[in-house]
Amino acid sequence: MNKTLTGIDGLDKMLNGGLPSSRCILVCGGPGSGKTILSTQFLHYGAVRCGEPSLYVSLDEDINQLKEEMASFGWNLAKLEKKGKLAIVDASPIRHVSGDVKIGDLWIGKRDFSLVSLIEVIKRNAKEINAKRIVIDPITALTFQYSDVQDRRTAILDFFEALTNLGTTNLVTTELRSVTLEREIRDEEFLTQGVILLHVFVAEREIVRGIQIEKMRGIDHDNQIRPYKITGNGIEVFPQEEPLVRVHVRASALQI
Amino acid sequence: MNKTLTGIDGLDKMLNGGLPSSRCILVCGGPGSGKTILSTQFLHYGAVRCGEPSLYVSLDEDINQLKEEMASFGWNLAKLEKKGKLAIVDASPIRHVSGDVKIGDLWIGKRDFSLVSLIEVIKRNAKEINAKRIVIDPITALTFQYSDVQDRRTAILDFFEALTNLGTTNLVTTELRSVTLEREIRDEEFLTQGVILLHVFVAEREIVRGIQIEKMRGIDHDNQIRPYKITGNGIEVFPQEEPLVRVHVRASALQI
Amino acid sequence: MNKTLTGIDGLDKMLNGGLPSSRCILVCGGPGSGKTILSTQFLHYGAVRCGEPSLYVSLDEDINQLKEEMASFGWNLAKLEKKGKLAIVDASPIRHVSGDVKIGDLWIGKRDFSLVSLIEVIKRNAKEINAKRIVIDPITALTFQYSDVQDRRTAILDFFEALTNLGTTNLVTTELRSVTLEREIRDEEFLTQGVILLHVFVAEREIVRGIQIEKMRGIDHDNQIRPYKITGNGIEVFPQEEPLVRVHVRASALQI
Amino acid sequence: MNKTLTGIDGLDKMLNGGLPSSRCILVCGGPGSGKTILSTQFLHYGAVRCGEPSLYVSLDEDINQLKEEMASFGWNLAKLEKKGKLAIVDASPIRHVSGDVKIGDLWIGKRDFSLVSLIEVIKRNAKEINAKRIVIDPITALTFQYSDVQDRRTAILDFFEALTNLGTTNLVTTELRSVTLEREIRDEEFLTQGVILLHVFVAEREIVRGIQIEKMRGIDHDNQIRPYKITGNGIEVFPQEEPLVRVHVRASALQI
Amino acid sequence: MNKTLTGIDGLDKMLNGGLPSSRCILVCGGPGSGKTILSTQFLHYGAVRCGEPSLYVSLDEDINQLKEEMASFGWNLAKLEKKGKLAIVDASPIRHVSGDVKIGDLWIGKRDFSLVSLIEVIKRNAKEINAKRIVIDPITALTFQYSDVQDRRTAILDFFEALTNLGTTNLVTTELRSVTLEREIRDEEFLTQGVILLHVFVAEREIVRGIQIEKMRGIDHDNQIRPYKITGNGIEVFPQEEPLVRVHVRASALQI
Amino acid sequence: MNKTLTGIDGLDKMLNGGLPSSRCILVCGGPGSGKTILSTQFLHYGAVRCGEPSLYVSLDEDINQLKEEMASFGWNLAKLEKKGKLAIVDASPIRHVSGDVKIGDLWIGKRDFSLVSLIEVIKRNAKEINAKRIVIDPITALTFQYSDVQDRRTAILDFFEALTNLGTTNLVTTELRSVTLEREIRDEEFLTQGVILLHVFVAEREIVRGIQIEKMRGIDHDNQIRPYKITGNGIEVFPQEEPLVRVHVRASALQI
Question: Chain C residues with CB inside 8 Å of D108's CB?
C-alpha cells in the first residue's frame, strides 16, 4: 500500500510511514482540538516539501481569517496560492441556497444541490492545480442536512466515493460533540478507511491533548492515545510517551 | 495578529496579551458564572482605559437593572453613556415580534426578522459611537429559534460574519446548560474563533469557579482550567495557580 | 443596592444583608426540600416584623391545607389575612381554562389567557394590600404550557418583567427535577436576577439538605452549599458549617 | 394536625405518630418493592384495629390474585369484605374503554371518561362502607394517558382534590421506573402532600430495601433512608438502624 | 399458595419450593443470558418429572434450530412431542400480517389481530395436550407494536389475563436491553406477579451471571443476586454463594 | 451440533471447536475493531484450508479498496476469485434506489426492494460458487431503513431466515455504536443464534482490544472477554490470558 507522509513526525511514526494514499481519512475533534491546524499542516507539508499541490476546501471558516491564523505557525498560505501550489476554496455560499434549484429541466432539492455543487467545486479546483492532497473542513455542514439516517449514510458514502475517485489523499474534518471517551460513534467513522481522533480531556490533574488512530485500514498502526501539543510549529505528536487515558479525579474519604 | 486587552489581568496573561482583535469570541457559562460581569468588564476597560467606545447589546436583561448591578463593581455605565463612550442597547423588543412582518414588498418570517433586525440595531448603534468593542448578551435568544440544525448553523455563521465585518472585537455570551465537564458541545463553539468557558463546579470539598480557554485561533494560549473569583472589582483570574479539575468526592469503605 | 431581609438568619448572612429588593428571585428545589416553607417564612417575616404586607399566590396547592401545614411552624396565616397584612390567592382556577377565551373582540388562546389572567390576579391583589413582598408558588404550572423554547423564554421574561414593575421583592418557586448536582439547567435560572437552590442529597453516609446561592446579581454572596434544616421554626441555615458536597459512597475492594 | 397510624410501627415512628389525616400520600416504588403490601397493611390495620372501614381500588391487579397473595401475611381480606369493613374494587374495566363515550348529550373522550368514572367509582364505594382510608393502586394507569404535561398535572391535581374532598386518608401508589437514586422526579411527587419512596438497591455487598419519607407536609419526620424488610407479617421498618445509602462496589487496583 | 417446581434446584430453593402456580412470571435477560434455556428446562422438567404437559410458544426463533440447540443439554424435545407431553408452536407467521385483516364483518388492525391470534393459538394448543405449563418466548414481539404507553399496558394486562385464565403456570420471556443495574424498568415488570432477572455483568475481574428474583407475589423468597451457570445440564443456580453485585473495576492512582 | 472452524485458533478454542454450522452469527464492533478483518479471515480460511467456497457481500466498502487492504495480511482475494473459491459482491447499488420500484404489476417500496434484491443477489452468487460460508458486511445499511421497531425486527428475522435456508454458515457484521460496556443492546443481538463482540476500550492504563462471545446457542463456550490483537496475520485471540474488564482510571486524593 502506498503511503503519504503528513509531515507531523510523531504521527507518521504512529502510522509507520504515513497515511494510506488515495483514501479518505476522517479527522475528528472538539472545538480547539486542532483539526484545522493538523489539516493545514498536512497540506502545507505536501505543497512545500513533497511537491504535491494541495486543495483546502472551507465550508465554515472565513478564508482570510484562516490565512491570518495559520500565519502564526509560519505557514504563508497566500504565497503558496500565488505559486499555484495551494488552492483555498470558500465553499460556504453553498450554505445559502434556500429551497429548490433548477438545473436544466431538473429540479434539485437544496440538500442534493449542496452535495452536487460541492463535488463540482472540488473537482474543478483539484483539476486546476493538479492537486494530490485535499482537505474538506468540516464535513458537518454536509451531514447535518440529512435527518434520515439512511439518506445520510448514502450521501456520505457517495461523497467519499467521489473524493476517492480523484486519486487524491483526503483529510475530512468532523466535529466530536461530547467531551468524553464514552461517546456515541458517528456514521462517518464507520464509512471511511481511517479515523484520527483528537481528544482534549482531563488526565491526572490537568487538561491534556491526546491523538488516537481509531482505525486505519491496510496499515499497521499504533492504536494508543498519545500526547500531542499545539506549538509554534503546529501539531507535535509524542508517540514514545506513555499512552494517555482519561482520568476522573476523585477525592476519597476512606472509612477504614 | 493584533490583540485586544480584556483588562482582566489573569485572563490577558492566559491569552499572552489579550484577545485576537476583530474576532467573535464566545463566552459560555451557567447561571451565576459571571458571563455578564466579564463582558461588561471588557467593555468598561475598553471605554475607560483604551479609548475604545463600546457597545453592549442586551437581549434578555433589563437595562436599568444591569446598570444597577454593575455599579456594585464601581463601573458607572450611565456616566460612560452620557460621554458617548458606551452605548447600551435593549434589543429585547425583537422578542415580541409574532408572526410574519412585511418589509417593503417582502414578507419575512419572525425568525429571520429577528436576525435582520438585530444586525441592523447593532450596525446602527456601533456606527453612532464608532464602537471598537461589542458585547451580545446572550445569543441564546437568537439560536433557540432554529430547530433545524442546518438553519441554526447558517444563522449563527451569518450573524458572526456580520459582526466580524464591523471590524470590532466581539464577545458573545451563551448559556452552558449542564453542570458537568462531560457535556454536549454546542454548535456555536465550533463556529467562532475563540471560546472561553466559565465553569462552576465541585473541586475537592467545595464549589469553585474555573475559567478555561477552550479555543483561541491564531493565539498561543494557556488551555488549563484556572481559578477565578468574582470580587468587588469584577472578575479576577489566577493563572499561576494549579489547574482545577472537577473532583467527585467519594467516601470509600475499604474491604482489605 | 437596597436589600430585603428574608428573616432566615443564616441565609441573610450568606446574602450579606438580605435579598436584592425589587427583584425576581427563583427558589428551586425538589419535593420536600422546603420551597413552600422558605417562601412562606419570607412573607411571614415581612408581614410580622417589617411591616411589609405580603402576597402569596398559590397555583397548585390547596389554600386551606397550606394554612394548616404552616400553622405547625407557629405562623398563623389566617390571622394575618384578617389584619390585611397578608393575602393568599388561589390562582388554580386558571388551570381549568380549556380552549380559547374571548375577551372583548379578541380571541386569546388558553396559554396566553393563563399568563394574562395570572398577572391581572397578582396586580389586583398586590394593589389591594399594598404588597411589598410576593411569592408565586410554583411557576411550573405556567412554564410547562410552552413546548416551544422561544415562546417559553418570552413568556418567562414577560412574566418576570410584569412582577418587577410592581416594585415588590418576589420569590418564585420552581421544581428541581433531578436529584443530582450534574443536571440540566432550566431556562428560568438564566432569566432571573437570583437563584437559590435547595438540594437534598447524600453526603458521607446520610441524606442532608444543602442551600446554595447559585446566582445573585448585584450582591456579593456566599456561593458554597451550606447545610440547612427544617425545624419547628421553619428553615434554619448554617453558613458557618463546612460546605456540603455530594458524596457517592463506594465500597472498594482493594487489589494491592 | 390529626394523624392516622399506618400500623407499621417503624414507619409510624419515622412519622412521629402516623400519616397526616385526610391527605393524599404517594407511595412510590419499583416492582417487588412492596407498594401493594404496604398499602394493604395500612388498610387492614385501619379496618381491624382502628374501626376505620377501608377501600382498596385496584387498577391493574386481579382482585382474586390479590386476596390470595395477601393471605400469606395472615390478612383475610375476604372476611373483612363480608363484614363490610373493607371494600375491594376492580376499576380495571375502565382500561377497556376505547374511543369516546356519550354521557347524556355530552361526548367525553376516553381519557376524561376514565378519570370521571374512576372518581365516581371511588365516591360510590367509599360512601357505601363509610370509608376512612382509601388506597388507589396504582395511579400510573391514569397518568400515562396524558402526554401533554400540562394536562397531566391538571388531571393529577383534580384527582387528588376529589380524593381529599372525601375526608379520607389516602395512599396512592405509583411506579418508580429507574433503579437509581439519581433519577427524574415525577410530577405526582410535587403535587401531593406526602411522598414515601421504597428503594431496592445495592448497599455494600448486597441488595437491600430502604424506605424514605421524601416529603410530608405539616409533620416533622425522619428524612433518612431506613432499612425495611418484607416478612411474614408484611412490611417491617427499622428506624433505629443506620441510614442506608446506595453504594457502588468497586474493585480498585491501586497504583501506589 | 400452590407451588410449581422449576426443576432448577437452586432456583426452587430461592423460591422456597417453586414458582406460584397459575401465575404469569416474567423471565427477563439480555442476549445469551439463558432465557430460552431456563424456560425450556422448566417445561422439560414438568413434562418428564411432574407429568405436566407443557406448551412452548416461539415468536422469534426457528423451531428446528431450537430443538437442535436444546438437544445439547440432553433434552429430546422431538420425543416429548411425539408422546404428546410437549407441544412446540411456531407463532411467527403472526409476524407477517401486514395491514388490516377481516374477520367476519369486522376489520381488525394488524396489532390487535396479532394479539387475538396469539391468544387463540395458545388456547387451542394448550387444550389439545391439556397443558399445565406454558412458555411464551419472547413477548417482545407483542409489546413493541404499541407505541402508545396506555395501549401497551392494556395489551400486556389483557394478554396476561388470558394466560392466567387457562390455569397454567406461565413463564414469559422478555429482553433486558441495557447491560447495567441502573436501568429503566419495563412496563411488564409492574404488571406480572413475578419477575426473574438474568444479569450478565462484570464482578471483580470477570464476567459473571447472576439470577435475581426481583418480585414474586405471595411467596417469601431470596431477593439477592445469586450466581448461576449454563452447564451441560442447563441452568444451575448457586443460592448458598455470596450475593453478586456489579463491580466497576477502577485503577486508582493514589495521591497520598 | 456441527461446527465450522473460523481459522482463528484462539477463537476456535473459545468456541470449543468452531462456530455452529448453518447459523447466522453476528459480529459486532466499533470502527477499527476488526469486523471486516475477522470476517475475511473466516472466509479465506474456509476457501483455502477447508475447501469451502465463500461469498463476501459488501454493502458499504469499495471492493477494490477491500482487496488492497486485505492483501496486507497475505490474503490474495483476487486470486481466490479467479479460482472460483471466493466471490466478492458489491451490493451497494441497492443503496441508490430511490422511491418505489415496479416489479411485474407490483409496486414495491424502496426498503422492501432493498431487502428482496439483497436476498436475490446473495442467493444467486452463493449458488454460482456453491458457497459454504457467507459474510454480509455490514447489515447496518439494511436495518437503518426501518424506523418502526416491529418492521425492523420482522425484516431482520426474515433476512436471517433466508440466509439460514441456504445452509451456509454466515457471519453478519454490525456497528457497535457506543464505546462502553454499559450500552443499549441492539435488536439483532436477540435475533441471531450467536453474537461475537469486538470491544476496544481502556483497561488499566492503555487501550486494549477484547473479544467476547456474548451468545452462542447450542455450543458450550468461553464467555469472558479475552484479549485479541490485529497482527500481520489478521486477528489473533489469546484465550489463556486473564479476562479483560473495562477499567476507569481514577486519580484519588485520599483523605485519611
Answer: none
Q: Which set of grid coordinates corresponds to residue C98?
A: 380549556
User: What pLDDT does residue F254 have?
Assistant: 35
Alpha-carbon distance values, B238 to A252, B171, B179 (Å): 26, 21, 22
Asked if C72 has any chain D CB less than 8 Å from its own CB, the reply is yes
Partner residues linked to F199 by β-bridges: F210
Distance from CA of A53 to the nearest CA of B (A): 24
Q: Which residue numbers in chain F have pLDDT < 70? A: 93-113, 179-182, 204, 246-256
Beta bridge partners of B57: B89, B136
Task: Report how far residue A123's alpha carbon sits from residue A108's, in angstroms, rounded to the nearest whole number.
Answer: 20
Asked, as a colleague might, if the bond just before C138 is cis with ω within 30 of 0, I would say yes
Instruction: Look at residue A7 and tell me whether its pLDDT is greater than 50.
Output: yes
Q: Which residues contact A166 (CB under 8 A, 6 or more apart)?
A: A122, A123, A126, A131, A134
Q: How far is CA F191 from the centre of its chain?
A: 14
- The C-alpha cell at D191 is 403535587
Enumerate the β-bridge partners of residue A170.
A24, A134
Which helix or strand (DSSP H or E) is residue B211 part of?
strand B206-216
- Whether A24 and chain F come into contact, CB under 8 Å, resolves to no
Task: Please provide the DSSP assignment of chain C as one string.
Answer: --EE--S-HHHHHHTTSSEETT-EEEEEE-TTSSHHHHHHHHHHHHHHHS---EEEEESSS-HHHHHHHHHTTT--HHHHHHTTSEEEEE-GGGGG--S-EEETTEEE-HHHHHHHHHHHHHHHHHHHHT-SEEEEE-SHHHHTT--SHHHHHHHHHHHHHHHHTTT-EEEEEEE--BSSSS-BPPHHHHHSSEEEEEEEEEETTEEEEEEEEEEETTS----SEEEEEEETTEEEE-TTSPPP--EEEEEEEEE-
A247 vs E: CB within 8 A: yes
Question: How far does E188 lie from chain D, in Å, by closest CA?
Answer: 10
Neighbours of F49 (CB within 10 A): 10
The stretches of chain D forming alpha helices (DSSP H) are 9-14, 35-49, 63-71, 77-82, 110-129, 140-143, 149-164, 187-191
* D145/E contact by beta carbon, under 8 A: yes
C103 at the A interface (CB within 8 A)?
Answer: no
D159 to chain F, closest Cα gap in Å:
35
The subunits that touch chain E, with at least 3 C-beta pairs less than 8 Å apart, are A, D, F
DSSP H or E run through E159: helix E149-164
pLDDT band at D66 (very low <50, low <70, confident <90, very high): very high
Report how far apart the first and last C-alpha atoms of chain B are (Å, whole number).
58
Q: Give residues with Cβ within 8 angstroms of E255, minimum separation 6.
A: F251, F252, F253, F254
Residues of A in contact with E252 (CB under 8 A): 250
Please name the residue of chain A whose CA is at the shortest distance from the CA of residue B157: A60
Q: Does E253 touch chain A (CB under 8 A)?
A: yes
Strand (E) or helix (H) holding B191: helix B187-191
Q: Number of helices (H) and strands (E), helices first, in chain E? A: 8, 14
- Alpha-carbon distance A219 to nearest alpha carbon in chain B (angstroms): 31
Evaluated on CA atoms A166, A168, A169, A171, the torsion sign reads: negative
pLDDT tens-digit series, residues F2-18: 999 999 999 999 999 99
Contact with chain E for residue F218, Cβ under 8 A: yes
- Contacts across the D-E interface (CB distance below 8 Å): 119
Work out the angle between the directed axes of helices D149-164 and D110-129 (0-180°, nearest 10): 10
Indicate the pTM of the whole model: 0.89
Evaluate the CA torsion angle C181, C187, C190, C195 in order and state its sign.
negative
C-alpha cell belonging to residue D164 = 381529599
Phi and psi, residue D4, nearest 5°: -125, 115
How would residue D247 be classed by pLDDT, with cut points 50, 70 and 90? low
